[in-house]
Request: fold
Amino acid sequence: MALHFAILFPIATHMKKLTSLAKPRLLALLIACAITVPPVYSASANETMHRSMAAAQDQSLEKLSLEFLQALWRMQPDNALYAGRYEGAAQLPVPDEKERARQLAFSQTWLARFEKLDPAKLSPKLRTDLALLKNQLLSDVWYYTRSKEFAWNPSIYNVAGAFDMILNTEYAPKPQRLRSLLQRLQQVPAFYAAARASIVQPTAEHTQLAIAQSAGTVQVLQEVEKAAQASQLSVAQKTLFSRRTQAALQAVEEYTSWLRSLLAREQASRSFRLGKTMYEEKFALQIQTGLTGEQTYQRALQAKEQMLTRMDALADQLWPKYMAEQVKPQERSRKIGMVIDKLSAKHAQPENFVKEVRQQLPQLQQWLLDKNLLGTDASKPLEVREMPSYLRGVSVANIEAPGPYRPQDRTYYNVSPLTDMTPQQAESHLREYNHWILQILNIHEAIPGHYTQLVYANKSPSLIKSLFGNGSMIEGWAVYGELMMMESGWGDNTPEMWLMYSKWNLRAICNTILDYGVHVQGMTREQALQLLMQDAFQSETEANGKWRRAQLSSVQLASYFSGFSAIIALREERRQQLAEKFDLKQFHEQFLSYGSAPVPMIRELMIGQPVMPMMQNMGHTSNQHKALVKSAKKAEKPTAARAAASAVTPHQH
Ligand code: ZN
Ligand code: ZN
Reply:
């Protein structure tokens, strides 16, 4: 997942999650990786000419981007940490009104500078970089002037992530890191005082989240203090360390009890629901498929119905083989659910779980070659390993790639070993990630999903795309990869495999329905649980977790289905356009060659036509842009620095 500098996504609910938030990883990232596939498409004479003309303009954008990033890391030392830059480790900006005004002015100034470049004169690679940069800055302006999350989400004020990173990342000798922490500690009381002054009307849900997470903050601060006392720092420095840690702990404690008092006095009364206007604005900036949230929601409803109709037929087909002795229920959902339940009993044993994953990856790779779907890089295989303990508890598996400033590091596929769970927990996980779903998980996370997409993106490395890449394209590709494999006959085309695939795809579809339902339509908890458990066959634990995530986040849950359906639409458009010349492998490779750009932008580069009218709803439209900049200038209260920014979200579905 890309770094999200502007919009916090606080799904961390306990220490493990918090720690994992602090690691720059997952998809954002450069790896020095040579791919053995031939060039994806050959340039026409026209293109070649355009390329040389573009060179000069490209260079000025490249220069400006680097200048911007340097300035950005100075402005936002915590975001810099998540990107792998530690120069500002000693500084903790105080998130007060003045700081917010400074950040807003910064975004506006840079936006104006990037506006001066003519996208038409840039090469495709740099044109997408420019669009992503501008979109990022617009998102920042939107954050300060429209969403104003700093005033209603107390959980964004948390110093733990950065402290944890500085303590546990070996970017410099330990004494040096500890001295940075000592300086940083001094700012903590002012940080939480500014937090209190910034919060106007919080939601109860985010207030509860902040209270729950404060236990993790205390734990991190205590770890820091322990490390300092055990270090080679001087006696005087150690004494100072203790004093500042005590003051910091007290500040956290005061902040937390203040939040408790808000809850007790029912002052945390803002609705967690974004509402239609804000939802659509955020959707346009983050998703960027060219459709509105509402249009995407309508498509998801249709897709859900189609999927259930198909699953109904699959369940009928499988019934005699698995359920012969049982009475077949009339009701569609119950019938499908019973078959899924029965099939879920076929799964790996806990001790073989990681091994199973490891064995599948070369098979998936070979499949892509045999079926002529995608060229792959056999020279640098993905390394499967047991999930490090500090990352456990968030998801069963994830791709951990090095940050953009650490291209020499390896890319790992972390898989939770399940051996540290109780037998009941392990069994529940194994049923969820059963024989069939485990294959789909590997397809999604690794090949041809996230890992493969990353390898392709790095063929033409772009710091900008690795930092600000489009999440909907990234998730959409992984979800599309599942369908690509199924269409090519993976899993022998059995009804079992198709039924399980459908269940998994239904999850992406229902994420969108849930997100829109919760934030725009006032969906209640009961309705949400009914959607997830009855229509999407999720367990109660899973459904409860998703309901919670939908309350605490917005729009991100819609990225899977929105990106997926945009990619399918583009593929069909391209197929029609090229008729018998259409080649699936070439489509895939060309699609991926542009890096993590929004799908309509890829469409423009691929099909070579201006992107209308699909792009009309995008965040870049000049009207919305002008309105944002105008509202930014008028805003009476310039808005907040994003505290300890979340940067990387753990990979979930
Ligand atoms: Zn079992
Ligand atoms: Zn994913």
Notes: Residues 444, 450, 475, 478, 651 surround zinc ion (ligand 2) (CB under 6 Å).
